[in-house]
């Protein structure tokens, strides 16, 4: 990938990782209940789930590229529209509420890993989201497989570190999120919408 494209992608991925979602909520919950060390199982499970979802999304994008470059442009604009719609939904979402999951006190590493994996892999919006987000940065003139590998690795690293910070600070920020949750959701929703509008216009 071109360096400037990767930098834009990295900033967008960081912003999206900070937005509320099933895995960030799970990281907060497990961080508050089990501590940072045990929540690492949850984070590794989430990374495995995201890797699966990204791979499936990339497979579909790669198939479109082989069919016609026109489809990539179409996918970029459809993806941008979806991200704007997603931004509206996040804007209107209620504040984050943390609930104590059943059996949390007896949770083992395997269970935490499985919960993290399922939160990422079974989210019905996951494949659609990555199918909308990743094509914005694909350069058909370059090696597509390498670009996908770079984007996947970058996102997984950012997502893991972001969730690790959330888990580490869970006890301190859950009260803050309860107080400013609606404003936080609106800021994240505006970010989604801005990404959806600006990225397809990059050319």
UniProtKB/TrEMBL annotation:
List UniProt keywords, sorted A-Z: Cell membrane, Membrane, Transmembrane, Transmembrane helix
Q: Determine if Iron-sulfur is one of this entry's keywords.
A: no
Q: Which domain of life is it from?
A: Bacteria
Where found, per UniProt? Cell membrane
What is the membrane topology here? Multi-pass membrane protein
Q: Does the keyword Protein transport apply?
A: no
Q: Which GO terms describe its cellular component?
A: plasma membrane
In this record, what's one Pfam family?
LysE
Q: Which residues cross the membrane?
A: 6-28, 40-63, 69-91, 111-134, 146-171, 183-201
What's an example of a GO molecular-function annotation for this chain?
A: homoserine transmembrane transporter activity
Query: Main subcellular localization, coarse class?
Result: membrane
Spell out the PANTHER family in the cross-references. ARGININE EXPORTER PROTEIN ARGO (PTHR30086), HOMOSERINE_HOMOSERINE LACTONE EFFLUX PROTEIN (PTHR30086:SF14)
User: Which family, according to UniProt?
Assistant: Belongs to the Rht family.
The entry's protein name is Amino acid transporter LysE
Q: Which organism is it from?
A: Pseudacidovorax intermedius
Q: What is the lineage of its organism?
A: Bacteria, Pseudomonadati, Pseudomonadota, Betaproteobacteria, Burkholderiales
């Amino acid at each position: 990938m071109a360096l400037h494209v990767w930098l834009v992608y990295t900033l967008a991925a960081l912003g999206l990782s900070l937005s509320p979602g099933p895995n960030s909520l799970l990281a907060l919950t497990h961080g508050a209940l089990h501590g940072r060390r045990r929540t690492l199982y949850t984070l590794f499970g989430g990374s495995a789930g995201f890797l699966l979802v990204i791979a499936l999304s990339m497979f579909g994008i790669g198939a479109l590229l082989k069919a016609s470059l026109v489809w990539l442009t179409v996918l970029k604009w459809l993806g941008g529209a979806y991200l704007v719609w997603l931004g509206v939904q996040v804007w209107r979402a209620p504040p984050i509420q943390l609930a104590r999951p059943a059996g949390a006190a007896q949770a083992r590493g395997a269970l935490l890993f499985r919960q993290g994996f399922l939160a990422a892999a079974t989210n019905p919006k996951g494949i659609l989201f990555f199918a909308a987000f990743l094509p914005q940065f694909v350069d058909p003139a370059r090696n597509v497989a390498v670009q996908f590998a770079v984007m996947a690795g970058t996102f997984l690293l950012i997502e893991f570190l972001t969730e690790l910070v959330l888990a580490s600070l869970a006890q301190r920020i859950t009260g803050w999120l309860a107080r400013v949750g609606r404003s936080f959701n609106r800021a994240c929703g505006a970010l989604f919408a801005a990404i959806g509008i600006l990225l397809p216009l990059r050319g």
